[in-house]
Write a structure and sequence with these properties.
Elements: E1 2-4, H1 8-16, E2 23-26, E3 40-41, H2 45-50, E4 55-63, H3 69-81, E5 95-101, H4 106-111, E6 116-118, E7 134-136, H5 140-146, E8 157-167, E9 172-177, E10 185-192, E11 194-199, H6 207-217, E12 225-226, E13 232-239, H7 244-258, E14 260-262, H8 275-290, H9 296-300
Parallel strand pairs: 1-2, 1-7, 2-6, 4-9, 7-14
Antiparallel strand pairs: 3-5, 4-5, 8-11, 8-12, 8-13, 9-10, 10-11
Bound molecules: flavin-adenine dinucleotide.
Length: 302
């Protein structure tokens, strides 16, 4: 079994399927750590599977109101995705939710014991690939190109930026959504003592100026903000959904013709997919790759 990509999806699959002795091919030269924010999960499932304790916390969330709830919801969607949708993450009033916080070195912990070949690009014509089952976590448009699949839809996505900073005397779990179109910041969160700022546009201000602006939105004095990191660009920050038929048609085609199973947010082009959701998908792929008769109907219903 070959797993393509050593991001979170590939590493989770490698750990869950360790009994099948998979090898991970990663095009980058070292462990990529594509994720630049603290990870908060809805359940403890991923931590339990990996044997890594996650911290259970209560997180509070609200919106920095711009106009009215409907305008805020549409503006937040447009700011992040480039289209007006009724974004349900915008709420009116404080919401409190249980979350599970992963340790900061989650990705390197996930990679422990996993056989990774760095600098190795997936090539469907590679003789090692023939006869192997391949779990692909590379973005769907890139896989389509590699497999010469030309019936795909147009893919749209928006880039974004993230910035982190530390806050002295702080142990909080909060998120504030910022719908105002003129403000480059789209969300400010604190996890413990780390502030994570997500931006829809590259800010004009310096990283420190941006971190101070974010702190002020949370009512935090700027003199307790320190350790401001570098602005990090995320190419696929927000991906715009494609129609379900195109998605499934390609996934079925790739499985039936090339024994390639797609896994993860970008590989299956599903914007809201989190690591929690992948556990079920890895188990399904394990089942499908074991059974000789591949059940198309089950896959299509996925
Ligand atoms: C600000 C922010 C906050 C987030 N918060 C959370 C959260 O709290 N919880 C959560 O679950 N998720 C969260 N996410 C989402 C999470 O970061 C992504 O879903 C996750 O990083 C995607 O991982 P992946 O393994 O699917 O893809 P990637 O990380 O993109 O991995 C794919 C890998 O494939 C490699 N690759 C590409 N092409 C090839 C090739 N041809 N051959 C070999 N290798 C190749 C790439 O180099 C890459 O390393 C957040 C995202 C952002 C931006």
């Amino acid at each position: 079994m070959i797993i393509v990509g050593a991001g979170m999806a590939g590493l989770l699959a490698a750990r869950m399927l360790s009994h099948r002795k998979p090898v991970v091919w990663e095009t980058q030269k070292a462990l990529p750590n594509n994720h630049s924010a603290v990870l908060r999960f809805r359940t403890s499932q991923v931590g339990d599977i990996l044997g890594i304790p996650f911290k259970r916390v209560n997180m509070i969330k609200d919106t920095l109101h711009w106009r009215n709830p409907i305008a805020d919801s549409l503006a937040y969607s447009y700011k992040n995705s480039g289209s007006y949708r009724s974004d349900r993450s915008v709420t009116r009033g404080l919401v409190s939710e249980e979350r599970f916080i992963a340790p900061p070195d989650l990705i390197s912990q996930m990679a422990e014991g996993v056989k990774i070949e760095f600098g190795r690009e997936y090539d469907p014509n590679d003789p090692h690939v023939r006869g192997s089952n391949v779990i692909s976590t590379i973005p769907m448009p890139a896989l389509m190109e590699l497999l010469d699949y030309d019936m795909g839809p147009d893919f749209n996505y928006r880039e974004g930026w993230t910035l982190t900073a530390l806050v002295r005397d702080c142990d909080a779990y909060v998120s504030l959504l910022v719908p105002a179109p003129e403000d480059p910041i789209s969300r400010v969160s604190i996890t413990g003592n780390q502030m994570i700022i997500e931006l829809a546009r590259e800010p004009v201000a310096t990283p420190t100026g941006t971190a101070w602006d974010a702190a002020r939105k949370l009512g935090i004095e700027t003199d307790v903000v320190y350790g401001v990191g570098e602005l990090r660009r995320q190419t696929y920050n927000k991906i715009i959904p494609i129609d379900d038929e195109s998605r499934k048609r390609f996934m079925l085609w790739a499985t039936n013709n090339c024994h390639v199973y797609s896994l993860g947010r970008f590989a299956t082009w599903r914007p809201g997919l989190l690591l929690d959701d992948l556990v079920k998908d890895v188990r399904l792929i394990d089942k499908w790759t074991r059974s000789s008769g591949y059940d198309m109907a089950v896959h299509a219903a996925r």
